Amino acid sequence: MITVQEARYCGGFRVWLGFNTGESGETDLEEVIQHYPAAETLADPEQFSQFYLDEWPTLAWACGFDLSPESLYERVTGCPPGWSQRIASQTKLTALSSTQS
Question: If we measure between CA atoms, which residue out of 84, 16, 97, 95 comes closest to residue 49?
């Protein structure tokens, strides 16, 4: 299960996120904020910057808006959750079959 372990405000609608997988990076959430009516109050960067990590943990705001850790992970890494685990498993299987030859 993907979780957000750390979040830092980077200005505007940009956030740096660190995940429990060890991966991290920065993403711009402006288009996400503009897309959802529930995030209307977050169109003000001052309000946007007031995020926190909720009990999941993922990015959340006092207005009740939050974003799933999986969607944030994909925005930061460009890969769906589980991708790095599948690649690692495939690499391990390939290595095992190579040693058995």
Answer: 16
Torsion of CA 68, 57, 36, 46, to 10 degrees: -140
Question: Who wins on pLDDT, 98 or 9?
Answer: 9
- C-alpha distance from residue 1 to each of 9, 13, 56, 66, 81 (Å): 24, 26, 10, 17, 8
pLDDT of residue 38 exceeding 50, the answer is: yes
Rounded to two decimals, what is the model's pTM?
Answer: 0.79
Q: Is the peptide bond before 81 cis (omega within 30 degrees of 0)?
A: no
User: Which residue ranges form the domains of the chain, and what is each CATH number?
Assistant: 4-77 (3.30.2020.10)
C-alpha distances in Å from residue 4, one per residue of 11, 21, 36, 83: 19, 9, 21, 17
Place of tokens 């959750």: 81
* Average pLDDT value for the chain: 88
Q: How many C-beta atoms surround the C-beta of residue 5 within 10 A?
A: 14
